[in-house]
Amino acid sequence: MRSAALAGPPVASAERPPPPSLWRTFPSRTLTFCLVELQKLSHDRTELFTRAVQPVLWLLIFGETFNRLHAIPTGSNSYLDFLAPGIIAQSGLFVAIFYGIQIIWERDAGVLNKLLVTPTPRAALILGKSFSAGIRALAQVVVVLVLSVILGVALTTNPLNIIGTFVVVMLGSAFFACLSMTIAGIVLKRDRLMGIGQMITMPLFFASNALYPIAVMPAWLRVLAYVNPLSYEVDALRGMLIGTPSHLPLDFAVLLVSVAVGVTTASSLVGRLAR
Amino acid sequence: MSAVAAAAVDVRGLRHRFGEHVAVDGIDLRVMPGEVFGLLGPNGAGKTTTIRVLNTLLPVQEGTVSIFGLDVRREQTAVRRLLGYVPQQLSIEAALTGRENVAWFARLFDVPRRERRTRVDDALEAMGLLDAADRLAGTYSGGMVRRLELAQALVNRPALLVLDEPTVGLDPVARGGVWERVEELRLATGMTVLVTTHYMEEADAMCDRVAMMHLGTIRAVGPPEELRRSLGPGASLEDVFRRETGNTLDGEEIGKGGLREIRRTRRTAGRVG
Q1: B2, B70, B107, B189: best mutation site toward chain A, by most A Cβ within 10 Å?
Q2: pTM for this one?
């Protein structure tokens, strides 16, 4: 029995280590939640395959068909080249937009309360959880990238661009996970969040440049596409993966600001889930 | 921090409302370091609300609450560093192994990397889970899950261990196992334990002192044997509760815990059962 080893130093003792600074707490918590997500994935890999079905269908059926139709103007790139980065972004969106359901499940199971009683700032908790959604999305990115190569998509071989792709997917997924957790903090119930998630997923997807260029959209849809962070994610992915003209500084700036706003909003609401 | 010898828990005039409903109605409570203190009462008595305020999950709306001299309202993060918390629900991550579950909380409590593995193993061994540490927690029995939650709560070497209905839904053997571990811990570490329960016989056997809560107020406080003795030979804590409140634990006036609390209790009981 090693119970005695669990005796802590006296409360007022100098043996109790000083709390780490905030600048260490945030990356430490983010890494912790990402590690936990990787551990969960390593124990149950079925999700990697089941979640890969939808992007594969989009690329194989939608992509191949429209590639032959030449109905969508994509400049010097084939439609399949144009579509692949859009499907990568869509995969991240579809994973992240239902992440709020997980936090409601954790609320119901008591896990969220336990997490909130740890010395973890709420913003660090949300940031960690949102990037762990990005970890799940990355697993799908790898599947889509491999399939794209098999289908002959002219992907970059520059490792820096591939790393940049992962960063962009993490940021995009983190934002949509924050959006989902924000909605969770407002509606508080799983079935309501499911309904809202289903209601907003396809509009977010269609009101972006994932499937077609913004230039071919009607004026009202263009407005939506320009305020939709998914468009900036796709723009950055296309620039890095297939070399289309993009606006990387703007894309990164929009994604970073979106994540910051998302973390702030979701963390201000997470306490409602604990009550 | 006011003094080394500050009360582990010092609650004065605590009142907490949910809308119009007063869940905790101006209670005073003092738990001394090293005590095992039981908050007793049926669903809706205000036990869970009280400990949710103590562990910073709910704000202090009215009154003052301090943990080892730290003001819960102003020093939340410092208070959390002193706490180990096991909620009523079965709150483990079933898709992780037992060891991963405990290591997760070691990281969240900033246990230094060089000590982490030892501390995780110590916590698992103290709860009798070292042999099952590398199995997925989803395969654990109800009693093992509770002990894993205790290991998670202990990896921080907390000064105050807060247990919310730790034995709800467990069979008698598993209940005994959980209490046995808590008692061993208390003897070995001198840790303060605050536990809520509606099992009077368990509180009688395990707690140094108990407070009987009813409809948001504390009706009686003291060592169990003293409370029983005040009623005469052969009296039980349930008899004392009846004298103080005019009700039994399953009477109609009590148990106003609301659908959510009752559902939570049943869900936990169902999952462990």
Answers
A1: B107
A2: 0.86
